[in-house]
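To illustrate this point, we now present one chain and its tokenised fold:
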Amino acid sequence: MEYQLINNEEKKRYEFNIDNQIAHVDYMLARGNIYLTHTEVPSSLGSRGIGSKLIHSVLTDIKENTEYKLFPLCPFVAAYIKKHTEWKSILSELVNIE
């Protein structure tokens, strides 16, 4: 199933609204970089791969619609990029994910 990614700039987070519940990735913007700081999926939405779908959508948006370099401070995001190495191209040169 496809979910619509919402960039909630007021709350500084990317969101999926699923059955009136919000899965989200918090971010900070500074000096031309985007820092993904926290990912949260409500427990009632767990075990459906929503977190991975959310991260994929967020990374796609960053790659296609921004000039930002990525700092994945959230461990879930970093682990996702480690498994899906095609996303390393949008990382800041200061980030090393092995």
Notes: Helices lie at 50-65, 75-83. The CA atoms of residues 23 and 46 lie 10 Å apart. The mean pLDDT is 95. The first helix runs from residue 50 to 65.
